[in-house]
Design goal:
Distance between the termini: 85 Å
Low-confidence stretches: none
Structural class: alpha+beta
Strand content: 5-15%
Number of helices: 7
Number of strands: 4
Helix content: 40-55%
Mean pLDDT: 81
Order of helices and strands: HHHHEHEHEHE
Shape: elongated
Length: 184
């Protein structure tokens, strides 16, 4: 009843002004169309292991992101070794399949080592690791002219540490995609 009394007390002009203000307020609340233009719809998650990671639902096949997320670019080695084990070969097998399907990409294979020896020994070992990864990819049909290998020794450690589980991260070859050849 109080609302009716308030409305009757307002003059005709004021009623119209209040009515317009209420309509504008309601119109401003409707942001559904704007949000639909600004934000793409989220991909429904099924709870499966192979669901895309949030934020990576729209990774383009054949892109660098596709290679990193779906193939993997790191190959790991045991201490003081440039021998490929079964896990390393499985990673390189996936890389070879992807690279053979995406021939526009060049690959720089960067070898690394931990600090278990002299600087020159680690430089030699890291180059052997990069060469081993390259030779394996060539054996799987990747054109050698699309790749080059460079060993960096222990100059670019992932982590500087003494723990064995940490050092393992430094014994690696990283396959970096390029669109053009860069210097070794």
């Amino acid at each position: 009843m109080r609302n009716i009394t308030l409305m009757s007390a307002l003059t005709g002009y004021t009623r119209r002004l209040v009515g317009v203000a209420m309509l504008l307020t309601l119109a401003a609340c409707n942001t559904t169309e704007i949000a639909a233009l600004e934000e793409p719809a989220a991909t429904p998650m099924t709870g499966q292991t192979n669901d895309p990671a949030p934020g990576f639902e729209n990774v383009t096949a054949g892109s660098e992101e596709d290679f990193i997320l779906n193939v993997g670019r790191r190959t790991y080695f045991t201490k003081d070794s440039a021998t490929l084990d079964s896990v390393a070969m499985a990673t390189l097998d996936k890389q070879a399949i992807w690279l053979n399907s995406n021939p526009r990409w060049l690959v720089k294979l960067q070898g690394f080592a931990d600090d278990s020896g002299s600087a020159s020994d680690m430089a030699t070992l890291s180059q052997k690791r990069a060469d081993a990864a390259m030779a394996y990819l060539v054996s799987k049909g990747v054109d050698a002219n699309r790749m080059w290998a460079k060993g960096y020794g222990n100059d670019r450690e992932v982590r500087d540490c003494t723990d064995r589980s940490c050092k393992v991260q430094n014994r690696r070859v990283v396959s970096n995609l390029r669109t053009q050849r860069d210097s070794l």
